[in-house]
Design a protein that fits this description.
GO terms for molecular function: kinase activity. Its EC number is 2.7.13.3. InterPro entries: HATPase_C_sf (IPR036890), HATPase_dom (IPR003594), His_kinase_dom (IPR005467), HisK_dim/P_dom (IPR003661), HisK_dim/P_sf (IPR036097), Histidine_kinase_KdpD (IPR052023), KdpD_sf (IPR038318), KdpD_TM (IPR025201). It contains 25 helices and 25 strands. By secondary structure, the chain is of the alpha/beta class. The strands form 6 sheets. A 6-stranded parallel beta sheet has the order 3-2-6-7-1-8, sandwiched between helices. Strands 11-10-9-12-13 form a 5-stranded parallel beta sheet, with helices on both faces. The chain has a 5-stranded mixed beta sheet with strand order 19-21-22-24-23. Helix 11 links the parallel strand 10 and strand 11. It starts with 5 loop residues before the first strand and ends with a strand.
Length: 851
């Protein structure tokens, strides 16, 4: 059975019209004769969306009981049994009620697709898993319901339902999205213009990436290699030379001229595995490219222009940035160079040849190390000096050998010398062998004259072959040594990367790995003080440097105190102590140093983020406070003012009953306002550590009735069970009453009609436990701590029903008095708040600020 197709309607925020557009598509398909059913549509009380359902068939929802309450979910089995051609399933990121077959609705959708049903669904950009942290930074709200990006990217069609922030806010103000009592808070919080603009940009950029994927897939399927300039992509080619940073910055400026352009840095490595570029330079250039918003890539190839253009065409690049050739003019006479060749073969890709300070200076490459060790070269010279005369004597003793045989034997000897000692001993052996052959074995004998042309040709071929073989042996030895060195460097860097990734603190792990790799006593990272920068002589003083990080014993505190100092940038230097490194090892150390700079920057960014987190949390709380207070202060003030204004109005005469009702309304509103202000003040004192507490011995049988009386008529039905022999508690009477008022008010708010909360008390091990029990919907255990955060309410999207200070303040007050508040699940469903306080001891009351 073919798999069904997935069509997703993507929106930047609630209310843009995703569900409405999805239902329009369902009607269009139904009118064409397609079998369409509604598996689940959430209208959120929006009359236009509800009316759009119309005559479409709906599969009845499934009712699930959870924690004493009933919830409805999509009946997945019912939809599968119905086997429609198209199923409409709203809210892809929705979390199903526990007891459902799947945890998430997107998993239900996957089952429908596997059964061959095409699914129409909706999702908001803030619910994508990869964007969860970005959305939290923008809106200050962490989305608990997310859907994996892969599930959305796998859709055959993703349609963006777009609306400007201003139009969406007008829809909100007209009551087309949320209920009227939630509009003010929503407009002041989540639906601010800045939030909506940022979310809209996220949705557009994500969809653009999705379109890019589809375009790449289409080009691959159709075998299209030509560049399509759908989006500017700038590729900068890096050789690993010092001009790389100039090229990257130039390419970044080119990319910045086009909004949304991509920057890609690429290095073509030799496919023979030999080290060609400087790894330290490439490491620094990679960091620079990524810091400018680009990406770094490395490809293999022997033909650099071809490999470079293959990569550019593969990523659909529109522009290619190359550096002007570093080769001298003489070298350019024999080869056009990479830049000119690439430009000639680039086709529609624009090529920028950028001049730089290194252009035309020639390649100042590293000194080529000897292919063989000094000992082997000495052995080769000794073998030449001793072996050639000995071979001559042996051949003179053997009769009946022709000149051809003598030349072949001498040639074998030269090859042997080349294998032992390399090029120069072999060249000496070839020259000496040719002279010995001419003197002893070529007529006329014992002269350097050659009488016959054939003998001259034979000796010439001997010398040429001997030199060629010596050269090949020497090059092979050098390449073998370079390949072994490159393999060791690559293995070292791979080990470093693995240890850094696995470690919790990358910088110490990196330095320790560097110390172990080169058997050093200590490694230190030094940062030059700002006042010492640019002043000669001061960089050698210990006070001019700050030890940022170190491993090992007695780390160096100035660059001159160590055996090797490797500068990272203008201010950072890595100093090695214990032994002086060879020049060949310095290359890999420079790569270590570049990674150390990255690790140091990451650590500092982490520290800055940790330091900024309390400030961000305080700012978030202030924002939530202002948003909440804007409603909670306004409501009682408006009620009290309306009552007082009515009483003062000369146009209306009220009877005694109406006057009493208006006065009661004003009194209740002002009491509510007073409680709100008191909560805010107490919460600020708690956070500042300046809340005054007077601990005294008080009985719960005295304080509980006072708390219920303060709550008024709603608390009349609350049942209490407080034993008469219950010991008194050590607490501040006023604060304890406030705690009880908040706990009972919370229980009343969530208790079902006809099932009022219950208050019980008991004593255990020097503590008194008071339980406020309700049989409401309860709270999932994983969210127990969440409800004690200030300005939060479980399941709320706004703050229109209160500032959410009650439980947070209650816990703070209880802990200030030496007690605690913890939630428990009520047997049979609901929530029980357990207040634990120390039992009173016969001591005098004490007074002091909160610790």
């Amino acid at each position: 059975m073919p798999r069904g197709e997935l069509r997703i309607y993507l929106g930047a925020a609630p209310g843009v019209g995703k569900t409405y557009a999805m239902l329009e598509e369902a009607h269009r398909r139904a009118e064409r004769g397609t079998d369409v059913v509604i598996g689940f549509v959430e209208t959120h009380g929006r009359r236009h969306t509800a009316a759009m359902i119309g005559e479409l068939e709906q599969v009845p929802r499934r009712t699930i009981a959870y924690r004493g309450a009933e919830f409805t979910e999509m009946d997945l089995d019912g939809v599968l049994a119905r086997r429609p051609e198209v199923a409409v399933v709203d809210e892809l990121a929705h979390t199903n009620v526990p007891g459902s077959r799947n945890e998430k609705r997107w998993q239900d959708v996957q089952e429908l697709l596997d059964a061959g049903t095409t699914v129409l669904t909706t999702v908001n950009i803030q619910h994508l898993e990869s964007l969860n942290d970005v959305v939290a930074q923008i809106t200050g709200t962490i989305q608990r319901e997310t859907v994996p990006d892969a599930a959305v990217r796998a859709a055959e069609q993703v349609e963006l339902v777009d609306m400007t922030p201003e139009a969406l806010r007008r829809r909100m103000a007209h009551g087309n999205i949320y209920r009227p009592d939630k509009i003010d808070a929503a407009l002041g919080n989540y639906f601010r213009v800045g939030n909506l603009t940022a979310l809209r940009e996220l949705a557009l950029l994500w969809l653009a990436d999705k379109v890019d994927e589809q375009l790449d897939a289409y080009r691959a399927q159709q075998g299209i290699s030509a560049t399509w300039e759908a989006r500017e992509r700038v590729v900068v080619a890096l050789t690993g030379g010092p001009e790389g940073e100039t090229l990257i910055r130039r390419a970044a400026r080119v990319a910045a001229r086009s909004k949304g352009a991509d920057l890609l840095a690429v290095h073509v490595a030799r496919s023979d595995g030999l080290a060609g570029a400087d790894p330290a330079q490439l490491a620094r250039q990679r960091v620079l490219a990524e810091s400018l918003g680009g990406t770094y890539h490395q490809v293999l190839g022997t033909d650099i222009p071809a490999a470079l253009l293959d990569f550019a065409r593969g990523v659909n690049a529109t522009q290619l940035v190359l550096g002007a050739s570093r080769r001298g003019r003489f070298a350019q006479l024999f080869s056009r160079g990479v830049g000119v060749t690439t430009t000639a073969l680039s086709g529609p890709i624009d090529v920028h040849l950028v001049t730089h300070a290194e252009a035309g200076r020639g390649r100042r490459g590293r000194a080529v190390p000897a292919a063989l060790s000094r000992r082997r070269r000495l052995y080769g010279f000794a073998l030449t000096v001793v072996g050639m005369p000995a071979l001559t004597a042996l051949l003179k003793a053997l009769p009946d050998l022709t000149l051809t045989n003598d030349i072949l034997i001498f040639l074998a000897a030269v090859v042997g010398v080349a294998l032992v000692g390399g090029l120069w001993p072999a060249l000496l052996a070839a020259l000496g062998g040719s002279l010995l052959l001419n003197w002893f074995f070529t007529a006329p004998f014992h002269t350097l004259t050659i009488a016959e042309a054939d003998n001259l040709l034979a000796l010439g071929v001997f010398v040429a072959v001997a030199v060629a073989v010596s050269w090949v042996v020497d090059v092979a030895a050098r390449r073998t040594r370079e390949a072994a060195r490159a393999s060791a460097d690559a293995q070292t860097l791979a080990t470093v990367a693995g240890s850094v990734l696995r470690g919790q603190r990358p910088l110490p792990a990196l330095l320790e790995r560097l110390r172990e790799t080169f058997a050093l006593r200590a490694v230190s990272v030094l940062e030059q003080a700002a006042e010492a920068a640019g002043r000669p002589g001061r960089d050698r003083e210990e006070g001019a440097w700050r030890l940022v990080a170190s491993v090992g014993a007695a780390p160096a505190r100035t660059p001159s105190a160590g055996e090797t100092a490797v500068p990272v940038d203008e201010r950072l230097t890595v100093v090695l102590s214990g032994r002086r490194l060879a020049a060949a090892d310095r290359r890999i150390v420079e790569a270590f140093a570049a990674q150390a700079a990255v690790a140091l920057r990451q650590e500092r960014l982490t520290e800055e983020a940790a330091a900024a987190r309390p400030l961000a949390e305080a700012d978030r709380m202030r924002t939530a406070l202002l948003a909440a207070v804007s409603h909670d202060l306004r409501t009682p003030l408006a009620s009290a003012k309306a009552a007082v204004s009515s009483l003062r109005s000369p146009d209306v005469e009220f009877d005694i009953e109406d006057r009493e009702e208006l006065l009661a309304t004003a009194d209740e509103s002002l009491d509510r306002l007073g409680r709100l202000v008191a909560n805010l003040l107490d919460m600020s004192r708690l956070q500042a550590g300046a809340l005054g507490i007077t601990v005294a011995s008080i009985g719960l049988e005295d304080v509980v009735p006072r708390a219920l009386d303060e709550l008024g008529k709603p608390a009349a039905d609350v049942t209490t069970d407080i034993p008469t022999d219950l010991p008194a508690v050590a607490a501040d009477p006023g604060l304890l009453e406030r705690v009880l008022v908040n706990l009972v008010a919370n229980a009343l708010r969530h208790s079902p009609p006809g099932q009022p909360p219950t208050i019980t008390a008991s004593a255990h091990s020097g503590q008194v436990e008071l339980r406020v029990i309700d049989t409401g919907p309860g709270i999932p255990e994983d969210q127990w701590d969440h409800v004690f955060l200030p300005f939060q309410r479980l399941g709320d999207r706004d703050t229109t029903t209160g500032v959410g200070l009650g439980l947070a303040l209650s816990r703070g007050l209880a802990e200030a008095m030496g007690g605690s508040i913890n939630p428990e699940t009520t047997p049979g469903g609901g929530l029980t708040m357990v207040l634990r306080l120390p039992a009173a001891t016969p001591t005098a009351p004490t007074e002091g600020p909160q610790e």
